[in-house]
Specification:
With 855 residues, the protein is an alpha+beta fold. 48% of the residues lie in helices and 20% in strands. A hairpin with a 5-residue loop joins strand 15 and strand 16. The structure holds adenosine-5'-diphosphate. Adenosine-5'-diphosphate binds next to helix 22 and helix 24.
Amino acid sequence: MKGTAPKTPDTKPQPAHQHFAVSAPGKYLGIFASRLPTSTAAGAAITAGGLALALAICWTIDHLLVPLVNPGWFFLPVVALVGYRWGWRLGLLATAGEVLLVWYCFTPPRFWQGLPDSDGFARLLSVTGGTLFVLALVDLAARQQRSATALANENAALFRQEAERREHVEALNQVGAALSSELDKERLLHLIAQTARDLTGAGFAAFTLRPEDGSSERFHLAAAAGLTPQQEAMFRRMPLGGEGVLAPIYQEQRLVRVGDATKDERAIGQPRGHPLVRSFLGAPLLGRDGTMLGGLLLGHIQPDQFTAEHEALLKGLAAQASVALENARLFEQARARAEELEAVIEGMVDGVALHHANGELVRENRAALQMAEATGTSLATLLMQDVSGVRLCTAENAPLALGERPSRRALAGETIRSMDLRVVWDSGFQWELNVSAAPLHSPQQTIEGVVTVFHDLTVQRRQEREARLYAEAEDRRHLLQTILDELPSGVFIVEGEESRMVLANRAAEATWGVRWQSGAPASDFFRTSGVRIFQADGRPMPIGNLASVQVFRQEEPVRYLQEVIRRPDGTSLPVLVSAVKLPALIEDHQQAASGGSPEHMAAIAMQDISALKEAERLKDEFVALVSHELKNPLTSIKGYTQLLRAQLEAQDGVSLSEQERMCLNVVEEEADRLSALASDVIDVSRLQSGRLVLRIDELDLVALVRQVAERLQITTKAHVLQITAPHESIWLQGDRNRLEQVLLNLIGNAIKYTPLGGSIEISVTQVQDEQSAQVCIQDSGIGIPHEQQARLFARFSRASNASAHGITGTGLGLFLCRELIERHGGRIWLESEEGKGSTFAFILPLIPPDEARES
Ligand code: ADP
């Protein structure tokens, strides 16, 4: 499609001499003649030269060879040539020259020395006549030849024009096809410019458009071909189409053709850098509704490069281009709309599926794919056909027949709106779905496919259930609060290991004297509220020992724990606290999902025992007083008994009978027992009122254990006390008398509760990185029933098997041991099996905590 010159048609017109060359000489004469120049001067020169040549030939033959009768024949080719090539006028001149030369040189009397004779005259006439005849024939032939050539040329031109038109139409068709198949606007614009340039042979082609966003009414360069990058950049900067030769294109939507822009009065000059344009051709690009879309501009450095043919071509191209542009715009619009739709479908939280009319699943959106991934089943497929391992049921759990599936029904032309379904996997796992489906109709109203939208109701249903449960729980809680508020005792409910407040009744708030905010953990409440909790003995209660905290750590309820609550205003209230763990009421789904167990709650009741406490205090005081008062007569009884025995044994000849000795022993022992009991009662009363003071000193625990064991070994022969002590001495700080009391009690118990006798093993070791000392006392006695072991350290607590074996006691010893050991910052525990024996052990820090010294 290149080149400015119209192409020569493939079938060339035949040269004229081929049509008329009937003889060889004529043929060669024609060929020779056609090569000679056509100007008159050349004709005259050739005439003169030809005549001279013919004369020379005749002269030579006539004088040297044979006298010529008709030398005129030698001049005939010259006349014929001249007449054929330069016309009959020059032919006549040649004829005249010939006749004159024949007369002068060859007709006697030669050299015009007189008129020729009749014979010579007749020969001259015949030469003249013959030559004129030949000239007439040659002229005729030349004329026919010229007209034949003209006709052939005309034919050739017509043929060429036709071929060109055909070529242009074909080119336009091709361009049209190319343009309409190109939907990318940028490439399309460039293709149009390039095609316009190729078809017209223009130096450059530029394509201008109005900005699509409507930001300007002016036209700007959209694409160009044949421009240097600098020129293109310049064109892009300039607004085009307002003035000069371009004006009619844009203002009147007219085609403009300028032969030479430098001479056109509309031209307003070209800016610097503008490619030199002399020939100019421009056509408007009109939209379907006749609106001006832009212009197609062609330029050429040479003048008069564009013809009417090019004009028509450009017009056709402009029409094709505007259709292609419109197509590209529509395509762009359609694509944008398709992309929008795509984004909407992909962004939907509902699953969307598209089925073909043959039931085949064509596509699923992201949500549908995610659901498929989460469940391992394509729900989109399930809504159309059977899937193994899964059943599709109605909301009421009735299986759904294949024909009843929503996508299938839509395929039959039905529109399904909001149908609740249930997907049941063989594993028992279930999902609730809400499904809508609709057929997709073609313009001919046939069903082309089905669109199905579905979403998982499981979460929604669960949330609804939870909301309902929550409302119910709230109602219950309200009722509970009302009931609790009417109770005289303080009652509150906490949740979780941190004991976060759930609800508290009015009496509980009155007990604390401050409000415990719902949701606040116990540690926060006691840190910030000013409420402090003390044990019955007056020591601060560690937070971990609070009934509300402790209850979560143990299986059994906490019963009757004595606490003293000191309110922020400084007043105190002794309370008896009981706490019971409640089963978790509301299941926490998140926790359950993460494998955690639901949080437990505990109900705590605080009973005001100020009156009781007062009575107990009076009782303790009375008991302590009585015990104290008892000790003096007991000391006297013991003293006088010993004196009596000593005096009787000192008198000569008086010996005590066995019975008298036994009586004295019983009196002494019972006095001891009574005295020990009184001491224990006094100690207990001191401990409870916080009046027991430890006298801390350096002491060797190993030596102390040995001393106590030796003292007790004397009292029994049936038992063997064995001491194991890897260290010779273990020095620690403690109250010597009180630790001795503990050891006497524990080793004494080991002896007492091993009635059949046996070995009692005592070990003293250092433990916990040598920071503590541990004493273990192991016997093989009656042991302690398992269920009674936990409460043995309480006051007056005795195991049932002790009395069954007839062993007497008060149940105060272990209570005192625990209190004393704990006051030293230590801990005491037991391990026992009924009938096999018991091990009592305690551990003491080598350096007791500060409160031990203060107590
Ligand atoms: P008492 O010995 O005066 O009864 P304690 O407080 O010393 O009081 O002991 C409480 C109870 O613990 C005892 O009544 C007994 O049932 C049990 N007990 C203490 N030590 C032993 C032991 N070594 N073996 C078996 N039972 C014991």
